[in-house]
Specification:
The chain is of the alpha+beta class and 426 residues long. Helix content is 13%, strand content 28%. It folds into two domains: 211 residues, Sandwich (Immunoglobulin-like); 192 residues, Sulfite Oxidase, Chain A, domain 2, CATH 3.90.420.10.
């Protein structure tokens, strides 16, 4: 039988290589697209063990900029404006400006507003001066709360939002931070989001700061990724990480102003923990082991394990079991973290590594890291001929199985994924 520990060590080596090379050579993270159904493999071409080794070797930790899946708004899309149009709109590094102003009607008080009208808005040079002292870099998987899988996994860099807000010297009566991205100066296209002021100023234990973000995988943000500057909220779904950031309003209004709230979404939902397949075969031969790979999105609950289940397709689902708790669940193998979290020489610029990473040893203090991804693999035992439903699920650090504890829609999709597999005699 295959030695998964050996393959896990090989995955560690590959992950380290891709992490170090970052966007220069990284391709898409396998599985951040919809599940890839592999063809039935012939025994005389590859053994199941060889096939699993091949699948594990394809797994990559970071997603290159151009391989992220896009969720964009605007007509025309800001990322598709011509260079001269982007410059005129403040969407390149030379012309970008950020305003930080009080919501006067709410009574919010700011000692030193930053505004375009007064000529005091923050420009790129000012942001880079803050970066010299305050830059932070950490990993985050980007996910849309209404899509079934991640959009991409990145290493993001920026300045904590609280350090940027400090330039405006917030004074009193501030309960919430409203922020906006550029959308063609058309009110109906404006995309908004917000955070509690307390969340911006102080990170929950173990969490990363909210960033005014300008880099992905060591490269300046591209227009498609929200460049030159976007918001990045580590624990939240993508709609909180507004692209093309240009304006922040400090308000005493206790209510959120999020665009997504108008569409019945839970705008305060943390990312959920869930498992997804990366590659699963369309079929297999009877009695032959079945290689499977997948990824897990690590949400606020952390990740303890991933499990899989084969169930005969003709079997009726038990009544009152919408969450598939009565399936024959078996443990898969979680693959380990990269061995070395160092950066390429051109990125070894003194920016701190994430706080989950020991700067002396380069090892993760806990694995998997919250709000990132982890890969998993299994060589499932062979099955008799027939049609089956293959499923996977995550178990969080409290022992809670996906899709619990939050199964209500519009707060992040994490339903159980089902793949049909046919096992044949020949």
């Amino acid at each position: 039988m295959i030695d998964l520990e050996t393959l896990a060590r090989e995955h560690r080596h590959l992950s380290r290589r891709y992490f170090l090379q970052l966007a220069a050579t990284a391709s898409s993270v396998a599985g951040l697209a919809p599940v890839a159904f592999g063809a039935r493999f012939a025994a005389d071409e590859k053994t199941p063990e060889q096939e699993l080794e091949r699948l594990i070797a394809k797994l990559k930790y970071l997603t290159a900029d151009e391989r992220f899946f896009n969720v964009e708004r605007g007509d025309p899309l800001p990322s598709e404006l011509a260079p001269e149009q982007r410059a005129a709109a403040g969407l390149d590094r030379e012309t970008w400006r950020l305003e930080i102003v009080p919501d006067v009607e709410s009574g919010a008080k700011v000692r030193k507003p930053l505004s375009k009208e007064a000529g005091t808005s923050l420009d790129w040079v000012g942001l880079m001066q803050l970066a010299e002292k305050h830059a932070v870099r950490y990993g985050k998987v980007m996910t849309c709360n209404n899509l079934d899988g991640p959009l991409g996994m990145g290493l993001w860099e920026g300045v904590p939002l609280r350090d940027v807000l400090a330039l405006a010297r917030p004074a009193d009566l501030i309960r919430r931070v409203w922020y906006y991205g550029y959308h063609n100066e058309k009110p109906e296209q404006m995309f908004r989001s917000s955070l509690a002021y307390s969340r911006v100023q102080e990170d929950p234990p173990g969490d990363m700061p909210v960033l005014v973000c300008y880099k992905l995988n060591g490269e300046w943000l591209s227009p498609k990724r929200g460049g030159p500057v976007r918001m990045l909220v580590p624990e939240a779904y993508g709609f909180k990480s507004v692209k093309w950031l240009q304006k922040i309003v400090l308000t005493n209004d206790h209510r959120a102003n999020d665009t997504y709230a108008d569409q019945n979404n839970d705008i305060d939902s943390w990312q959920k923990t869930m498992a997804r397949f990366v590659e699963a075969p369309l079929g297999a031969k009877a009695g032959q082991a079945i290689p499977i790979t997948g990824l897990a999105q690590v949400g606020v609950g952390g990740l303890a394990k991933v499990q899989y289940s084969f169930e005969p397709a003709e079997r009726e689902r038990p009544a009152g079991d919408p969450n598939f708790t009565k399936c024959d669940w078996r443990d898969a193998t979680l693959l380990p973290p990269p061995k070395n979290w160092g950066l390429p020489p051109d990125l070894d610029d003194g920016v701190p590594t994430p706080q989950e990473i020991d700067p002396q040893t380069g090892k993760a203090n806990i694995w998997p890291l919250r709000y990132t991804i982890a890969h998993w693999a299994v060589l499932a035992p062979g099955l008799p001929a027939g049609k089956y439903n293959l499923r996977c699920r995550s178990i969080d650090l409290r022992g809670v199985a996906q899709p619990l504890p939050r199964v209500v829609g519009r707060s992040g999709r994490n339903g159980i994924q089902t793949v049909p597999v046919e096992v044949t005699d020949g």
